[in-house]
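Form 12-C: Joint structure prediction
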Amino acid sequence: MAAAAKAVILLSGGLDSATVLALARQQGFDCYSLSFSYGQRHALELDAAARVAASLGAVEHRVMPLSLGALGGSALTDFGIDVPEAPAAGIPVTYVPARNTVFLSMALAWAEVLEAHDIFIGVNAVDYSGYPDCRPAFIEAFEQLANLATRVGVDAPPGQPALRIRAPLQQMSKADIIRAGVAAGVDYGLTISCYQPDAQARACGRCDSCRLRRQGFAEAGVADPTRYAPASG
Amino acid sequence: MAAAAKAVILLSGGLDSATVLALARQQGFDCYSLSFSYGQRHALELDAAARVAASLGAVEHRVMPLSLGALGGSALTDFGIDVPEAPAAGIPVTYVPARNTVFLSMALAWAEVLEAHDIFIGVNAVDYSGYPDCRPAFIEAFEQLANLATRVGVDAPPGQPALRIRAPLQQMSKADIIRAGVAAGVDYGLTISCYQPDAQARACGRCDSCRLRRQGFAEAGVADPTRYAPASG
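Section 2 - Result
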């Protein structure tokens, strides 16, 4: 019996990356999920990531501490900046500097050690509108970089990249993502998307992330399992 | 008086990156130096980096903890693998997985926060022979990625990359580097290149890094200020 191919999955505890993990499992990969502790306002998402990894059969789940928060510059890691509750034009202040570049780099390091050739990330078209490091061109550039950066990439025959950055949600709407995830066995009740959940891990229902998520369940025609805080209407 | 442009400098405490910092200062940049604590066998190089940063007038020096060591896979972070004392063919076992990708990513994050447009890294032609992430093609790919990954890159006019990855040592021999560094005011006595210095921070004189360094001083016709352990002949 041949061993399954290994994949590293960036897992945040949110809806998108949980779906990605389920899709990677569905494709037959042995999944190694990776989360980061980087000074987030809420450690609750790390608990969610661990529960999601266990429920979807990840071989191993790791939480890697990163000191991105010390660099400041984001509402998600800097308590001096308010999380916005209304949609804003341009790049949101919740943007963490170079976040996906850093996350993919760490995933690449682990992939190289594991001899995994596939890295999965849950970027999608909705994020694309605001975050520069969620765009397809960014993902392609990182794949090119990955194959220049590593032993396995160097040893690969020309035109056949050894390492693949897989972003299966890239062209999907939130509703599509939720439908695919339900079909692949995701329990979205385990996930947290809210930027500012309360102490009981209940969602605010008002931040950008909550709005997109709630709308996604409605459009998918799937019952929303999110626990909202009472005030969230 | 216009403020000087800011640059982030990857600084290891070794000979090459100290030279890079001096060259960046010489070019008029306000320098923000960045070192990583990533499970190295010796913390001595971090002390060296701090001394080098101070001696060359860095505006700020930061040490960022990274848990790359937990991933294993390198003689520099894994005590189970012996550091080689003879030159080996191919990629050396002292290679740390995806190291320069990770380091440049963190530098990019800090650069974005600082609004710096220049990142300096001390890769050179000698390393090029063995490490995939020291090659010019890798540096070019990272620059391309950086401009796709960040606000400042997104906002830049087409064909004019906002972020530059500068590798001024790329085409220089070790002797050239040493001559340039001496001219730019580097005190190489502060730097440590050895993979396995003793408790008094004295170099072994036998590892790959020591051999290249010692040969560089000889070829440059510069007195070698390195403190070698007595047994190193």
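Section 3 - Comments
The mean pLDDT of chain A is 85. Residues 6-192 of chain A form a domain with the Rossmann fold fold (CATH 3.40.50.620).
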